[in-house]
Amino acid sequence: MILFEQVHKTYPKQVGKSAAKHALKGVSFALAKGETLGLIGQNGAGKSTSIRLIMGYMRADSGKVLVLGDSNASPVVRRRIGYLPETSSFPDNLTCMELLRFAGQCCDMKKKDIIAQSERLLKRLGIWADRNRRLSQYSKGMQQRASFAAALIHDPELLILDEPMSGLDPIGRAEIIGLIQDLQQQGKSILFCSHLLDDVERITNQVAILHKGDLLYNGQIKDLCAQQSEWDIELRSGEVMTVNHEDAIPALLTKHADEVIGVRRATESLQDAFVRVVEGAAS
Q1: Which of residues 222, 246, 274 is at a domain's end?
Q2: What's the predicted TM-score (pTM) here?
Q3: Which distant-in-sequence residues (6+ apart) come within 8 Å of 144 by Cβ?
Q4: CA–CA separation, 204 vs 39, rounded Å?
Q5: Domain extent for 28
Q6: Which of 63, 126, 145, 190 shows the greatest Cβ crowding within 10 Å of its Cβ?
Q7: Using one digit for the tens of pLDDT, what is the confidence trace for 52-91?
Q8: Which helix (H) or strand (E) holds 125?
Q9: Are 154 and 239 members of one domain?
Q10: Which of 22, 38, 32 has its CA nearest to residue 209?
Q11: Same domain, yes or no, for 108 and 127?
């Protein structure tokens, strides 16, 4: 669905401003059909540049970018993509239903299908009762839900979600996570960026970590977190012995055989693993 292969992108130096910026430095990752990939990193890591390349808003300096088998993100390909930008911008006089009609017509949807899909999505997102209010009167969370509906109106096979939880309260976040999980069950391919790593860990099992244009990690979350795993050996006395290397466990079990009541493996959270990887790259 998405293939990045040794992608380089540099923003040239601007007069009176900072030097040229190397936004991506030989980045490679892939998103297969039906999979979900979390693209994570600090501000300036290269996430937004990656999304712009996927959407065809700019071209790479070198390397290969393929989206749905196409190298230039043509209008035909874009109709198969649902894109939720980090920041939404709506005309002041537009209502939510007008937004969805426009989005559906851009994808050659029939009027009856737009109406049916709009009702289903807006009810699921909790803003059906406000469908004819102007978007300028929506709260930030409601605008985010409207943007999500616009991204899904044409039932795309590939979703690009940039900070999908932005502006949402805890209940709204839980509802959107549930919706994304439903989309996963439907076999949608999803690439999403988020600074909320707890949400990333709930939604997907694989991540790509970008840092200042470099790809630091690309793979399973469980493998990343297991790199710093520890084992806790619990004794009857209540004492817990922490072991950093699995090879040391048999000897300790033999030595304390009458006292051991349990052994459990404690792995890092994605948040802790991310900090470790990024700080390691900076040192």
Answers
A1: 222
A2: 0.84
A3: 88, 164, 166, 167, 168, 172
A4: 11
A5: 2-222
A6: 145
A7: 999 988 999 999 999 998 876 677 888 899 999 988 888 8
A8: helix 111-125
A9: no
A10: 38
A11: yes
